[in-house]
Amino acid sequence: MANEVFPIKSKRDYNKFIKALKPGRDQWLAQLGTAFGLRISDLRLLKIGQLRGQKSITLWEKKRKKKRVITFSSSVLKIVSQLEGDDDDYVFASRKGGEPISRVQAYRILSDAAKRAGIYDKIGGIGTHTLRKTFGYRLYQSGVPLSRIMVILNHSSERDTAKYIGITAEEISEAYESIEV
User: Fold this and answer.
1) Confidence tier at 3 by pLDDT (50, 70, 90)
2) 155 part of the active site
3) Is 132 an active-site residue?
4) Is 95 a catalytic residue?
5) Fewer CB within 10 Å: N-end or C-end of the chain?
6) pLDDT at residue 2, as a whole number
């Protein structure tokens, strides 16, 4: 696996990536991973009953032991309405049954799709953490302040968050240039 992964910044690349995934579980892995911004260790353990019929989810992140409340967007609600199975079934179930998808299998699904979509080399490698970074980058693009993204991702500094989501000096310059007074 690559040491460092990056967000998928281009919406066109992201859409190609999603289309390269098998409909259902594999697409939902990428879409919910991007929508929730969770680490794979938390994402892979989601159960259908935690999502079905809900408008949000509250969970404790494994790594930081912090409570996280995620409110569902309209696109997440659409995905949740398509989930099939018992409440105790994993959303991202292993094909072996009864178990959640493994980290390795999740990585394989995502990186293979990125290669099929022709974006793997452009992005610099894709992994399960790509989804979390894409989530942070999307928040930044939509105008959410870095200080709030830092809190959402449970980072300790805005500088770390900016580096984490791949905000470049060029993007910072463009932001300043866009301000008309």
Assistant:
1) low
2) yes
3) yes
4) no
5) C
6) 43
